């Protein structure tokens, strides 16, 4: 087992464990948010293991450093109480839905081995680095880039309008 | 590479289950973020498989879209809390039959 | 290679954490005393000999260990313990990409580069790790079960995430000048000099600069190429780490103690260590990016090695060059520490809305304008040069 594979197993286990902790934690929403951060950081480590350096760094900066901080802000501001188990009437339906989802995705997992082509043997020079990704972003993918900036403007205006107190 | 796609599917499954089962709106939003992360992982894995940087560009765009969505979503949650004083989705189901 | 890395890690930990950190607590008390025209702390003594107050860092640490370590009632114990750790660890980890000395050829299989991890995206790593440090602030206030602490931590984290944006933008001009994100490569690029009036030649005003004007040279430091970028980056990184004058989150006179209100003993000591460790770390990053890193001004590495090597032989010359450039780096870091301390004790604390205005209304447009002007100048010089 090479050290890369061992590291991948370690970070994958941490990611799955903290994702489960996030979903199953009923008492403390801030602890859920912190588990989400741990998931993000371990996923960033997996990205770096797969030579995706720029994406890994940006994942930590944007996702882990800004988005989840926003979640924690809202939880702290709203001072939320604890969550409960769903009432008995809903439990059966939710359990059935969960099992169906797990079954469908389990079939997907079972179909994966052997269905993917072989990985490229030698990566091009500078793969995943900021130069190549940046060049691609500004030349071939210029239209999605500009469209994303419009999307951000819309989200900015929307968030400010939503959070304002009405003056009536 | 198979392992990475498996990890992506597992995380996606956890995200879907979280969005279905939990009743706290904020945890539902966090599960949606987890699903987006699982998709990002799949993109990076396939990009590595092809040796092509295009997957990385799309991951950047997905991260940006997720950030915008979280901002607006949390704005909605705050408005919801101001009007109904709850973040439990079961309590805001007036349209249900 | 593993022994080399472990050696570098030990050196960095011993020098920066072992030597600089206690010195900085002493410097803060003595420098503030000198600025405020008083004597400062000088009572700690060993067998009756006070060494200018140099024993005070030791006594401070002993005092912190001796205090009671409590968790307030109703607080979340795990988060209360985790928050100072999350504040401290990024400050230490940021040192992994700082170049303490240059790249030297000792005849081994690869040249020896005095960076613990010379990744290609070094400065991006610094920003990523710095953004995790916001969590310590966010959680400490919430975990303390105290309204004032919560207010302090909300303000602090809003300040930190706002300044992360501007911090990234203010160095984009520097990236354009040096074409790299790695701090070691930036320091290597700053190892030369340029003629101050050379721009006249570039813009076609004169054909060749006369020799008597040509000796007016400056080292190719980031601060000379990007003066506005330097000022903006220093402001942003000081605000990001909540250094005074941006220290409203821990305002002693307004919020009692802000987000570290309910911490005492060594838990508070961890916050204290994190804040004071940021001072040399800020100094190291700003030195490597803007002040030429380890390069001695007007004396680039080749000249140094060949100059000493003429009398002493190349191997010894390379080793001596390493030591000299390391000392040059540490000297520049000391200058930056002095600068930060002087700024701290000269400026009054900003009000919170002034802090936010400064970030979004002044620094953000200025940094975008900086990027635009830098790009325009680089394109113009390339067109005229080609």
Low-confidence stretches of chain C: none
- CATH fold label of chain B: Helix Hairpins
Strand order of the largest sheet of chain C: 1-2
| Beta-strand percentage range of chain B | under 5%
- The arrangement of helices and strands of chain C along the chain is HHHEEHHHHHEHHEHHHHHH
Compressed to H and E, one letter per element, the order of chain B equals HHH
* CATH top level assignment of chain B: Mainly Alpha
Q: What proportion strand of chain C? A: under 5%
The portion of residues assigned to helices of chain C is 55-70%
> What is the alpha-carbon Rg of chain C in Å?
23 Å
- Coarse shape of chain C: globular
Most strands sheet of chain B: none
Describe the protein in words.
The complex is a heterotrimer of chains A (168), B (97) and C (386). Chain A is mainly alpha-helical and 168 residues long. Chain A folds into two domains: 83 residues, Four Helix Bundle (Hemerythrin (Met), subunit A); 44 residues. Helix content of chain A is 74%, strand content 0%. Chain A contains six helices and no strands. In chain A, helix 1 packs antiparallel against helix 2 and helix 2 packs antiparallel against helix 3. Chain A is globular. The model of chain A has no long low-confidence stretch (mean pLDDT 84). Chain B has a single domain, classed as Orthogonal Bundle (Helix Hairpins). In chain B, 79% of the residues lie in helices and 0% in strands. In chain B, helix 1 runs antiparallel to helix 2. Chain B is elongated. The mean pLDDT of chain B is 87. With 386 residues, chain C is an all-alpha fold. Chain C is built from 16 helices and four strands. The chains are: A mainly alpha (168), B mainly alpha (97), C mainly alpha (386). At the A-C interface, helix 2 and helix 3 of A face helix 3, helix 4, helix 5 and helix 6 of C.
């Amino acid at each position: 087992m090479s050290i890369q594979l061992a590291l991948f197993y370690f970070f994958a286990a941490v990611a799955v464990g903290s994702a489960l902790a996030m979903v199953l934690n009923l008492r403390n929403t801030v602890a859920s948010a912190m588990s989400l951060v741990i998931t993000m950081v371990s996923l960033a480590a997996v990205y770096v293991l797969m030579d995706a350096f720029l994406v890994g760094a940006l994942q930590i900066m944007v996702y882990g450093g800004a988005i989840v901080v926003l979640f924690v802000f809202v939880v702290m501001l709203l001072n939320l109480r604890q969550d409960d188990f769903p009432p008995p009437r809903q439990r059966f339906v939710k359990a059935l839905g969960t099992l169906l989802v797990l079954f469908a995705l389990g079939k997907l997992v079972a179909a994966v081995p052997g269905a993917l082509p072989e990985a490229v043997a030698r990566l091009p020079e500078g793969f995943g680095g900021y130069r190549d990704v940046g060049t691609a972003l500004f030349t071939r993918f210029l239209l999605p880039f500009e469209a994303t900036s419009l999307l951000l403007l819309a989200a900015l205006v929307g968030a400010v309008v939503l959070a304002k107190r009405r003056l009536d | 590479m198979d392992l990475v796609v498996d990890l992506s599917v597992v995380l996606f499954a956890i995200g879907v289950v979280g969005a279905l089962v939990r009743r706290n709106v904020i945890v539902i939003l966090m599960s949606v973020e987890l699903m987006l992360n699982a998709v990002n992982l799949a993109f990076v894995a396939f990009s590595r498989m092809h040796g092509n940087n295009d997957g990385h560009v799309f991951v950047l765009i997905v991260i940006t879209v997720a950030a915008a969505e979280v901002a607006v979503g949390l704005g909605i949650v705050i408005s919801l809390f101001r009007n109904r004083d709850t973040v439990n989705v079961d309590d805001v189901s007036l349209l249900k039959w | 290679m593993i022994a080399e890395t472990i050696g570098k890690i030990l050196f960095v930990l011993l020098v920066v954490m072992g030597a600089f950190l206690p010195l900085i607590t002493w410097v803060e008390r003595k420098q503030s005393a000198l600025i405020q025209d008083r004597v400062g702390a000088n009572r700690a003594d060993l067998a009756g000999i006070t060494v200018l107050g140099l024993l005070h860092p030791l006594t401070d640490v002993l005092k912190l260990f001796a205090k009671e370590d409590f968790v307030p009632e109703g607080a979340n114990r795990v988060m209360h313990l985790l928050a100072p750790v999350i504040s401290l660890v990024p400050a230490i980890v940021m040192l992994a990409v700082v170049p303490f000395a240059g790249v030297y050829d000792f005849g081994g299989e690869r040249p020896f580069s005095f960076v613990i991890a010379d990744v290609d995206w070094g400065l991006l790593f610094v920003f990523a790790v710095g953004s995790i440090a916001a969590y310590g602030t966010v959680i400490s206030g919430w975990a303390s079960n105290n309204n004032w602490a919560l207010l302090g931590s909300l303000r602090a984290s809003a300040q930190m995430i706002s300044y992360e944006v501007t911090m990234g933008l203010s160095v984009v001009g520097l990236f354009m000048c040096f074409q790299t994100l790695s701090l070691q490569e930036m320091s290597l690029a700053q190892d030369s000099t340029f003629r101050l009036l050379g721009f006249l030649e570039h813009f076609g005003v004169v054909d060749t600069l006369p020799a008597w004007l040509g000796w007016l040279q400056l080292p190719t430091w980031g601060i000379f190429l990007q003066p506005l970028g330097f000022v903006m980056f220093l402001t942003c990184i000081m605000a990001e780490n909540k250094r005074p004058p941006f220290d409203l989150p821990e305002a002693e006179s307004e919020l009692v103690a802000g987000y570290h209100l309910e911490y005492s003993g060594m838990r508070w000591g961890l916050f204290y260590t994190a804040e004071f460790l940021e001072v040399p770390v800020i100094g190291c990053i700003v030195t490597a990016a803007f002040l030429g890193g380890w390069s001695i001004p007007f004396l680039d590495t080749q000249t140094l090695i060949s100059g000493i090597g003429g009398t002493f032989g190349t191997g010894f010359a390379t080793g001596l060059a390493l030591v000299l450039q390391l000392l040059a780096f540490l000297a520049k870091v000391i200058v930056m520490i002095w600068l930060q301390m002087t700024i701290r004790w000269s400026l009054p604390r900003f009000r919170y809305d002034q802090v936010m205005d400064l970030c979004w209304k002044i620094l953000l447009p200025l940094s975008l304008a900086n990027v635009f002007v830098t790009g325009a100048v680089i394109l113009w010089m390339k067109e005229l040069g080609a």
